[in-house]
Description:
The protein is mainly alpha-helical. The chain is built from 14 helices and six strands. It is 64% helix and 6% strand.
Amino acid sequence: MAAQEMDNSTTWGKELWDQFDNIATHTQKGIDFIERFGGFIRDRSAIEVEYALKLRRLVKNYQPKKSKEDEENEFSSLIAFKNVLKEVADLAGQREVVAENLQNQVLQGILLLAKNLREERKKALNQGATLTQSLHTQIGTLDRAKRSYEKAFREAEKAIESYHKADADFHLSRADVEKQRVNMNIRNSQSEDAKSEYANQLQITNKQQQQHYQIALPEVFNRLQELDEKRTRGMKEFIKRSADVEYEVSPIIAHCLEGIVKAADSINEKDDSMIVIEKYQSGFQPPGDIPFEDLSKPDPDAANNSQTHNSSTGLNHMTGKGTTKDKLKKRVGIFGIFTGNKKILEACINVKNNLSTDGLKEDFSDLPPTQRRKKLTAKVQELQQKVAQEQAASDGLMKMKGVYEANSMLGDPRTVEEQLNESVNRLDRLRHELLRYQKLLEQANNQSFIQHSPQSNRVIQNGQRSSRHSNGSSNHENSHEDNGEDHPDDAGSLSSSSASPESGLGTSHTSLPGSGQGSTNEQPMNEEFYEADTPLGTCRALYPFDATSEGSIPMSEGEELQVIEVDQGDGWTRVRRFSSKGWEEGFVPTSYIECTLYA
Length: 599
């Protein structure tokens, strides 16, 4: 209560009645200070906007690139990082909200308050200056009245003194004495009038001065006090409001932080390890033990190679041994396929024409078995969806055509017929492609023989070559070097550069040796050459195949052929057939045939 009474009695008008200039300076500094606080809010808002902009740029720069394969097999750490980026983007949005609210709710209020305070202060100071000037004017009038009174009083005293001197002087005439008396009376009258004017002005001045310092000027000072207190209260409210702006977005920011923590908790290292297995599992079996080769014993393979080389001079560009069901032989490769730039260009063109948009073969025969089955399954599902969509579109066109035929006022049926024919043609193509990939998937699922990786086959093959060199069969391979043909090792290193179903080369194995001298698409073979070879089974062509590269042979749909070497993971099967020209041997795509192997 005492503090309240003290507040009510303590005012600028009472306590600072004589501090007009200091009050004016203080209020000016207060307005300048709140304007400076407004500048602080403006700069802080700009920093918030810049911070939000940089956060958004950060999210954009670190956004992972999207790919279909990554969407199918996304690691939990990658998904968590994407969620973190989303939460950071939301945090940037909240900083923008803070900046906007600071500008609209705090900065605008500060500027408006400063403007009003400046106008009110100007009015109060002008009124105070007018009151002070009026008081000073009255005091000046009082000073002039006082000086007039003092002058009249001195002249009256002087006139009285002159009269008394004249009256005492017997040498002056009566007329002179009377003249001095009249002058004395006039001066006394003027002195009394000046005295009365001075008294009147003094009374007016005292009254105005009392009114000025007790009523008028205190009112001005109190208005300035209220103005300054209003500024102080505004400062308090604006500081609180700036904090409330942060409080309003704090629940959303907390939710974003909880989302980041939740994203971190969703990371599962075991699931990511399983995704790696699903993504890169080949399905190949690990390679078996490399057999020991006793160099002191004769090499039956070298003997067979020598016998084959001597059996027919026209077969120096073809392999001299078949593949039996007891022991699968490795294909040696097309050594001369890269002997000319023209052939390289043709092979590259064939590869490009048979690749899909993701760089893989259309039948995915260049992938390991497990990955190929996954790709084929996804392709079948994709085609099934396309067939369903196209079927729905075709049914809709059929209904529309029926409606137009029933009521020609609604439309011309012929306008729909062309679209319907195109839809039917697309549907037939999609169904044919779906059937093809379903057969490929069924074939991939029914493969029962053990497959080894191309890398393991290459290791074993290199070991066999080393063995043959040491057993005297190197003479035959040296003859290739003498003829300027590629060495089998070199051919093996080049085999991975071709990935076309019609290139005659697989991803890890080569085709027929010595094919660098002319085309060997169809080469007649001697029947006696295969007397010792037992076919592994038979196969039937599911689709026609045109051999466009060396080492492969053409076949027509439904044609029966003998299987002499099964697909070893490179997408190609070696077959032979008998024609009027004799035995023909070469490679055909595994996905184009249906094999029946002997038990």
